[in-house]
Automatic annotation (TrEMBL):
Listed Pfam families: EamA
Name of the featured protein: Threonine/homoserine efflux transporter RhtA
Compartment(s): Cell membrane
Keyword hit for Membrane: yes
Transmembrane segments: 35-53, 93-113, 120-141, 147-166, 173-193, 205-223, 260-279
Classification via PANTHER family: EAMA DOMAIN-CONTAINING PROTEIN, OS03G0707200 PROTEIN-RELATED
Family membership noted in the UniProt record: Belongs to the EamA transporter family.
Keywords noted in UniProt: Cell membrane, Membrane, Transmembrane, Transmembrane helix
Membrane topology: Multi-pass membrane protein
Domain EamA, residue spans: 6-136, 145-276
A GO cellular component annotation in the UniProt record: plasma membrane
Coiled coil (UniProt feature): none
């Protein structure tokens, strides 16, 4: 199997892991503060990565270390914003809105590189906007949770662009480990004002360890390796299954039920996501390769 195809399959596994965390996190946040939960989750993930291969960070070049710090700060802030948004909306809606990063990724790549945005990209934006409205609008205004989650999607898009430009098979592990340390620091700073609390039950600890080791450390290593073999737009579309998994897990194992808004809005958002990949893929992949130079 060639590397690009294996990378796509790897990212689908990452999407499944991430999608499984929405209903778990939603439940956990009824008993833990957002920043406390994230700081603990990423601290465990950081320690795991460092213990697995201690020399990895030290072998990074100074340039790669700077890039890892920038990526970690971006991802850490995105996690704080997204998780705070999840407190104010359902796991299903949060999953779908987070998936908007697949639309933002080619648009931001085009803006950063000063390329003209094609007509298919605008069609995708319109589709996604309408879908988001069906999912999230209450009257004439969006809720706080949806707005925060949308902001996090933009930050995730920037992270995807940077990771695609800077990751290589050789630096993947070290880049992942240092990113995780920086993410822990960002979330730890967010946890300082109100003090720090840990889970009070064994079940909550199991959830935290699952999200730290499987959906955190392992997922970031896999994503970093996979993006060394894929352009960011193609990577983003492979991860569009995340909101699908999020809704599926929320309905099957959470307390949510299927609604017409979820079906119609989700279908529109997913249509926009796939349109971004299917229509202008060659054009945007060429632009992203230029970013990496």
């Amino acid at each position: 199997m060639n590397h690009p195809r294996l990378a796509v399959l790897a990212l689908l596994a990452v999407a499944a892991a991430w999608g499984s965390t929405f209903f778990l996190t939603k439940d956990l946040l009824t008993r833990m503060d957002v920043a406390d939960y994230l700081a603990l989750r990423f601290l465990i993930a950081s320690l795991a990565l460092i213990l697995v291969h201690p020399p990895a960070i030290g072998r990074l070049s100074r340039l790669d270390r700077g890039r890892a710090v920038a990526l970690g700060i971006t991802y850490g802030i995105a996690q704080l914003v997204q998780t705070e948004g999840l407190r104010h909306t359902s796991a299903s809606v949060s999953g779908f809105v987070t998936g908007m990063y697949v639309v933002f990724t080619p648009l931001l790549a085009a803006v950063i590189l000063r390329h003209k945005i094609g007509r298919w990209a605008w069609v995708a934006v319109i589709l996604a906007t309408v879908g988001l409205g069906v999912l999230s609008l209450r009257g004439l205004s969006m809720g706080t949770g949806e707005l925060l989650t949308l902001a996090s999607a933009g930050l995730y898009a920037l992270h995807i662009i940077g990771l695609g430009a800077w990751s290589t098979p050789q630096n993947a592990f070290g880049l992942s480990a240092l990113q995780m340390v920086v993410i822990t620091c960002v979330c730890g700073i967010g946890a300082l004002p109100g003090g720090f609390a840990v889970p009070s039950s064994g079940g909550d600890w199991v959830s935290v360890f699952y999200m730290a080791l499987v959906a955190g450390a392992l997922a970031l290593i896999v994503q970093t390796w996979a993006q060394a073999h894929l352009a960011p737009t193609r990577a983003a579309i492979a991860m569009t299954m995340e909101p699908v998994f999020a809704s599926s897990f929320a309905v099957m194992f959470g307390s949510e039920s299927v609604t017409w808004r979820m079906l119609v809005g989700g279908a529109l958002v997913l249509s926009a996501m796939f349109l971004v990949e299917l229509a202008p893929r060659r054009k945007f992949e060429a632009e992203v390769q230029h970013l990496a130079q």
